[in-house]
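Write out the 3D structure for:
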Amino acid sequence: MKTFKFIIPFTFLLAFAFLYSCKKGDDQNQQITPQKEISSDKEKELKDKEEFLRIKEQQLREWEESLNKKDSTGKFKDKKIETKDSVKVAKDTSKTKIKKDDKKVSEKEKELNKRLDNPVTAVNDYLEYIKRGISDSKTFDANMKKASENWESRSAESFKKSYKNTKKFVVTQEPAVVTQKDNNATVKVKVKQTQTVGGKDEEKEITVTYSLVADKSGKWKIKSNVVK
């Protein structure tokens, strides 16, 4: 009888412990999900911008090819085009195609600028390329080049030099706008990085404030930064 009295409370205790562990697991899953969604959104934004740049490069190549087909007199080199009328038709067709391509790229540019470009996005893109380059040595040079394209006037070589000994780069506080007026803005972010100095790994957390400027099309570029 005494044993039976002890069994009932013990059973309730086990049931309570089981329910608590399930609830804790659900809470942890709920905390992890938003981070995955944020990472996915950043990846999509970068892919959209890279696609836009690919279209621009393709347009430039087509323009150069069109110019190369013409000689100094403005006529096409193709010997099959002999009459002035044929030359005129070919020129008009080429101009029409270029105008359509210009319009297509212009609309794509406006769409992307409206949807993607703002001071925080520019800083996020830059930081994402830095993180990619540090985490994958095979793409280090390519990502440092892409990172430099988010600045007004900093070369890829300067980033290679700055981050060649960096082993880890983590954003601990997401970029946030401090001030924004007209085509000028400042954005603050906190990052933690581990660098090899004198053969030893040193970890430090820094606060970086970026100054940005937007061009006429609304494209934001970083012009300077202050580290504390």
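The chain has five helices and four strands.
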